[in-house]
Predict the structure.
Amino acid sequence: MRHGQYRFIAGFLAIPVALYAFFMVWPYIQDVFYSFDEWNGLDTTPKFIGLGNYSRLLRDDNFRGAVVHNAFFLLILPVVTIVLALFLAFMLNVGGRGGGAGVQGVRGSSVYKVVLFFPQVLSVAIIVILYQSIFQTDGTGLANAILIKLHIISAQNPILWFNDEHWVRWCLLWVLVWSGFGFYMVLFSAAMQSIPRDIFEAALLDGASRSKQFFRVTLPLLWDTVSVAWVYLGFIALDCFALVYALTPGPGGPNHASQVMSTYFFHTAFQNGQYGYACAMGVALAVFSLILAVIQLRVTRRDAVEF
Amino acid sequence: MTMETHSAGVPTFAAPAADQPVRQRQAGGREGGGTLNVFSQAFLVLWAALVVLPLAWAVLSAFKDDKQILSSPFSLPTTLHWDNFSRAWTKGHIGDYFLHTVVVIGFGVFFTMLLGSMAAYVLARYQFRGNRAVYYFFVAGLTFPVFLALTPLFLTMHNLGNAGIPMLNTYHGLILVYVAYSLPFTVFFMHSFFKTLPTSVAEAALVDGASHTTLFFKVMLPMARPGLISVGIFNVIGQWNQYLLPRVLMNPQSGFDADRSVLTQGLINLSINGGYKSDWSGLFAGMTIAMLPILVVYVIFQRQVQSGLTAGTLK
């Protein structure tokens, strides 16, 4: 009996563990090994060069620029997305006071919840094509067409969006927020639903205004979820590969204005064929992610003591 | 009942206490922050419009011809150009890409669910040495950004090809990779689901002489159906929308190798290479074809989708 049970356990675990270990975990481990090698192509032998790739990384201006652009997204994306998602979630769950039926969402909140979540189920490919056509550089794109109609810009001088050094990161930021806020709205909604109703009702009875109710009651109780969202958005800001790769000229242009670590990594590996160097970038990126996670753990721990 | 009277009365007491500007307080009136209500409703409508309008614009454009798209971007299509869809389907190869995607996610989701629930079940219901270690080994995969693995994964697949097992630009290769990358979430989710199932039924089945394997397939798996549906939908959406993995793994390896692109990849290729500038309406039609199935799945199963997507982060 006991023997049979172990055979059963091993039999059920063998294939999933093997697949996962081989296709997912093994590549990450290889990343670390290759990062110490100079290796310029598929059919050459990797040459061990110690920390050579890493010291080159420190001197690489393009990589440094990419880190700065990631920092731009890292600082702005989580704040904008979380503020927006929190506000929407609050409105949809506890913001309504019509009819005096205690605590509830504003009218039509179930419809809003479904609609506002749409972008989350769209593939990044769809989002890319959608925004390529919206941010067309001539007057035919939706964004320029609207601005021309409103006489904010003239048809002769349309905004170049992704092709403009100053606009490109803000356009990407908009696409990132647009495609991501729905998830966090639903996440915060779920967290708000799990807060006992009587807490809100008690606050109402005590005469808390809606903004007090939000800042003094809802936000503190949601802090754990908010910090989880912060880390997730941080990972997205460190990644954002697909959007930058497919939407910007170059990719990463114009003039490296939107180059981020992930696109530079991809360029180094697959266009320049410098696999070892690219793996060092991958490891650097993993270290940045790790630092982010550690910072988050610190922040939550400190705040958990405050309650 | 008492609650109603209280909350209706609240604004009157609240207004003097709250340090708001006078104007806003008066406008607040009976409903408690009337301006805020109007403002928040307006804001919600605005955001809903920002989400829906671009999508509606793209779908409408799919029914126009190129000239109409360029000259009058806001107008409704004068005649419905269904030919855009047939052109995208055949000449744009969207039909082929669609088929490739269905094949890959059909097998991909099936094996993800099967292997994922097998592992999750054993980890959730059986005590053995190393149980926790294996569980955390899987869960750790939730935190890895996929593209970091791309280079080594590509090389591994390439080397397997050199060793006589072709993996790049093959369906089985992509399916295996999809299964591997979907396992962490599936194991994680199903693990917590199997934990909640009652033990009495399982014990009864074992007393009746069922083997552990029979118990799993005949008793436990059917009991886990709600969980399977949630994760299943999550995996369908995730694998349907996957772009990075096929972008690296599904390129023709030689001039004779067939194009086995999946939908997302095919669409992007279509928009980057030539096809885009010359055939707008076809591109919009292709995009609509790729978008609608997933939106329909989402609207039908939205409750499960939302709980499935958020479950991973809340627990």
Q: What stands out?
A: Residues 66 and 260 of chain A are 4 Å apart (CA to CA).
